[in-house]
Design a protein that fits this description.
The complex is a heterodimer of chains A (352) and B (257).
Chain A lengths: L1 E14 L2 E14 L3 E5 L6 H9 L6 E6 L2 E2 L10 E4 L11 H11 L4 H14 L15 H13 L5 E5 L7 H18 L2 E6 L2 H7 L2 E6 L2 E6 L1 H6 L4 H6 L4 E8 L2 E4 L2 E4 L5 E7 L5 E3 L8 E12 L3 E8 L4 E7 L13 E6 L4 E4 L2
Helix pairs in contact in A: 2-3, 2-4, 3-4
Chain B lengths: L2 H26 L18 H4 L5 H34 L5 H13 L2 H14 L6 H25 L4 H8 L4 H29 L3 H6 L6 H7 L7 H28 L1
Helix pairs in contact in B: 1-11, 3-6, 3-8, 3-10, 4-6, 6-8, 7-8
Classes of the chains: A alpha+beta (352), B mainly alpha (257).
C-alpha cells in the first residue's frame, strides 16, 4: 500500500493575467514508512507539491491519494497528514504542552489519553521538564523539536517537513538530521521532506525526487542519484560534477587530449564523472582506464582533501578531489602537466 | 551644560508641559471654593468627592457617556477586528478603496463628519438621540481599531493559521484558539482607543445628540455658569482608571513579549 500517491498533479497560478505553472505534472508513489525527499532549487515546485499534499493548495489537475483514498479536494483539517513548518509556526501564546496537545484536543481525544500521548511524545523529542515553557523562551533546536512533537503526536499517516532545519546553524542541523532519522525509525511514520540542501537529502532519505521547473528530473535512492545522475542538472545540483561532451566512436570518446571509455555508446554523448573518482598523477597511467591530460590551474587545500582545477587540452575545466590520506602534500602544483584517470564505470552518459 | 543634562532638562520640561493641565484638573478637584468659579485656590477639601453625584444633570450625562462608550466600543471592536483581519490577511477586490476609506475616516475633520452625519440622519428621518450618537462614535473610532488590528495582523506568521488547520482545527476553532489570541494586543489597544475617543468626543456628538446630554456636552454647557468641582473629580477618576488600564496593559505586554 502506498502512503501517498500523486498522479499527474499540476498547479497553475494566475499572476498579472498570465498563467504560471508551478508544478507541471508530478507523478509519485511514496511508500509506507519511507523517508522521502523532494529536492531542488528554489522555485522548482517542491514546496507547492508538499502544500498540495497537506491540502493548503488545490491541484489544478491530477489526483492526490492518501492510503488509496482520493483526498484531492479534502481540506487540510480533515486530512490525516501533519506538517512541520519552516518557521515552526508554534502558537506563541501557548506553552509547549498546549502546543503539542493542540491537535488531539481538536479531535476531542479523552483528556487521559491526551496526557499520556503528549507525555510520551515529549519523551521521544527529549523535552520532558520543559512543558510549561513558551516557544520564545526556547532555542531554535528546541522549538524545532516542539514542532515535530506537535505534528507526530497525532499519529499522522504521513509527516510533511518543509525545510525544517533551514533556520539552524550547521552543527545543530547535522545533529538534527540524525535525530530526525532516529525519530522516524522510532515512530515508523512516512516522512516527506522538502529541502534545497543536497547533503541533507542524501544523509536522511530512503528515496529522493530531484525537481526542476515543476517536474521531477530524477527519482531514486541517494546512491543512484549521486552515482548515476540521469541529467546534467541532477549531476550539477547534487555535489560537484564534471561534464565532458564529444562524439563517441566505437565506445571511445575523444576529449581533452585523451580518451573516455563509454562502452556501447555511439555519436554525440555527454558523460559525467565525480571529482573524487578521478586519480591525478604526473606520469601517464596504464590500463583499461579513461585517461585525459591537462594543466593544473588551481590547487585548493580544503582540510580533508585537496581540490584541483585542471584545464584539459581542449579548454574544458575538470575538478578533481584528492583525499589527504597520509601526508598533506599536493601531487601537483599550479602549472604542472598532469594525467587524470578513472575507472570506466565511474563515468555515466546522461541525457541533456 | 553637557548635552546629556540638556537632554534631561528638556525631557522634564516636556513632561511638565504635558502633565500640567492634568495636575491642575486634579488639584482643583480638592479646591474648597467659595465663589462661583473654580479658578483660584481657596483651600483643601474632600467634599466634592463626597458630593460627587449630587448634581443630577452631570451624573446622568456621565452615565449616558459611559453607556454610549461601552456599546460603541463593543460594536467597533467587532467590526474593526474583522476589517483589520481582512485588510491585513487577504487580497480582495475593493481592498485599495477600503484602505483609502479607513484612512479618510481618520483624516476627515470632525466638523465635516459631524455636519454630514447630521444631514444624513435628518434625511433618513432618524431622531437624534443616544442611538445616533452611538452610530457616530462607531463610525469615527472604527478606523482606529482597524488600523491597530491590521498592524498586528501584518506581523503575524500566516503559517500559524495553516498549522492550526493542519492539526485538525475547523476555521472557527482556528480563529478562536489561534488567530484571536495572537492579535489580542492589537484588539485591546484598539478597544482602549475607541473607548477614550467616545467618552471625550464633543464636536461630532454636538451635531447628532438631539436633546441627549453627554459628559463633554454638559461640561461645555456649564462653562458660562461655572464648572462645578465635581467635574474635576470625575475627570480625575476617569484619568486614574485610564492610567490603571494602561499600566496593566503594558505589564501584560511585557509578560507576553
Amino acid at each position: 500500500m502506498h502512503a501517498i500517491q500523486l498522479d499527474g498533479v499540476v498547479k497553475e497560478y494566475t499572476s498579472h493575467g498570465e498563467v504560471v505553472q508551478a508544478v507541471k505534472g508530478v507523478t509519485l508513489d511514496i511508500a509506507e514508512g519511507e523517508f522521502f525527499s523532494l529536492l531542488g532549487p528554489s522555485g522548482c515546485g517542491k514546496t507547492t507539491t508538499m502544500r498540495m499534499i497537506a491540502g493548503f493548495e488545490e491541484p489544478s489537475k491530477g489526483t492526490i491519494r492518501l492510503h488509496g483514498q482520493d483526498v484531492t479536494n479534502v481540506p487540510p483539517n480533515k486530512r490525516d497528514v501533519n506538517m512541520v513548518f519552516q518557521s515552526y509556526a508554534l502558537f506563541p501564546h501557548m506553552n509547549v504542552w498546549d502546543n503539542v496537545a493542540f491537535g488531539l484536543k481538536q479531535k476531542k481525544v479523552p483528556a487521559e489519553e491526551i496526557k499520556r500521548r503528549v507525555g510520551e511524545m515529549l519523551e521521544i523529542v527529549d523535552l520532558v521538564g520543559r512543558e510549561k515553557r513558551r516557544p520564545r523562551e526556547m532555542s531554535g533546536g528546541q522549538q524545532q523539536r516542539v514542532a515535530l512533537a506537535r505534528a507526530l503526536v497525532n499519529h499522522p499517516r504521513a509527516l510533511l517537513l518543509d525545510e525544517p532545519l533551514g533556520a539552524l546553524d550547521l552543527k545543530l542541523r547535522q545533529a538534527m538530521q540524525l535525530e530526525l532519522k532516529r525519530i522516524q525509525r522510532e515512530v515508523g511514520i512516512t516522512f516527506v521532506y522538502v529541502t534545497h540542501d543536497q547533503s541533507e537529502a542524501l544523509t536522511m532519505s530512503d528515496r529522493i525526487a530531484v525537481m526542476k521547473d515543476g517536474l521531477v528530473e530524477q527519482l531514486g535512492d541517494p546512491r543512484t542519484i549521486y552515482e548515476e545522475p540521469a541529467t546534467a542538472f541532477v549531476a550539477g545540483f547534487i555535489g560537484t560534477s564534471n561534464l565532458l561532451t564529444g562524439t563517441a566512436n566505437g565506445g571511445v570518446l575523444k576529449v581533452g587530449g585523451g580518451r573516455v571509455l563509454v562502452p556501447g555508446k555511439e555519436g554525440e554523448v555527454t558523460v559525467t564523472v565525480r571529482p573524487e573518482k578521478i586519480t591525478i598523477c604526473t606520469e601517464e597511467p596504464q590500463g583499461e582506464l579513461s585517461i585525459v591530460s591537462g594543466t593544473v590551474t588551481e590547487v585548493v587545500y580544503l582540510g580533508t582533501y585537496n581540490s584541483y582545477a585542471v584545464r584539459l587540452a581542449d579548454g574544458v575545466e575538470v575538478t578533481v578531489f584528492q583525499q589527504n590520506a597520509v601526508d598533506a602534500t599536493a601531487t601537483a602544483e599550479r602549472g604542472d602537466s598532469v594525467w587524470l584517470s578513472w575507472q570506466p564505470q565511474h563515468s555515466y552518459a546522461i541525457g541533456k | 551644560m553637557s548635552s546629556g543634562r540638556l537632554l534631561k532638562a528638556y525631557t522634564w520640561l516636556v513632561i511638565i508641559w504635558l502633565s500640567s493641565p492634568i495636575a491642575v484638573m486634579i488639584l482643583f478637584g480638592f479646591n474648597d471654593k467659595k465663589s462661583k468659579s473654580n479658578t483660584s485656590w481657596q483651600g483643601f477639601t474632600l467634599k466634592w468627592y463626597h458630593q460627587l453625584f449630587e448634581i443630577d444633570g452631570l451624573t446622568s450625562a456621565l452615565v449616558t457617556s459611559l453607556l454610549i462608550a461601552v456599546v460603541s466600543t463593543a460594536v467597533t471592536v467587532v467590526l474593526g477586528t474583522l476589517l483589520g483581519l481582512a485588510l491585513g490577511r487577504h487580497r480582495f477586490r475593493g481592498q485599495g478603496v477600503t484602505n483609502f476609506l479607513v484612512f479618510a475616516a481618520i483624516s476627515t475633520p470632525e466638523l465635516v463628519m459631524g455636519a454630514s452625519l447630521l444631514s444624513l440622519f435628518v434625511s433618513a428621518n432618524l431622531p437624534r438621540d443616544a442611538l445616533t450618537i452611538t452610530i457616530a462614535h462607531v463610525l469615527f473610532s472604527l478606523s482606529f481599531v482597524t488600523v491597530t488590528v491590521r498592524a498586528r495582523v501584518l506581523t503575524l506568521d500566516p503559517a500559524l493559521e495553516e498549522a492550526a488547520k493542519d492539526l485538525g482545527a475547523t476555521p472557527w476553532a482556528t480563529f478562536r484558539q489561534v488567530t484571536l489570541p495572537a492579535i489580542m494586543p492589537g484588539v485591546a489597544a484598539g478597544a482602549m482607543l475607541a473607548f477614550a475617543l467616545s467618552v471625550d468626543d464633543y464636536v461630532v456628538t454636538s451635531f447628532v445628540n438631539g436633546s441627549t446630554m453627554t459628559f463633554p456636552l454638559w461640561i461645555v454647557a456649564s462653562v458660562k455658569t461655572g464648572i462645578p468641582p465635581q467635574v474635576n473629580v470625575m475627570g480625575t477618576l476617569i484619568f486614574g482608571i485610564g492610567v490603571v488600564i494602561a499600566v496593566a496593559n503594558s505589564i501584560a505586554a511585557r509578560r507576553r513579549a
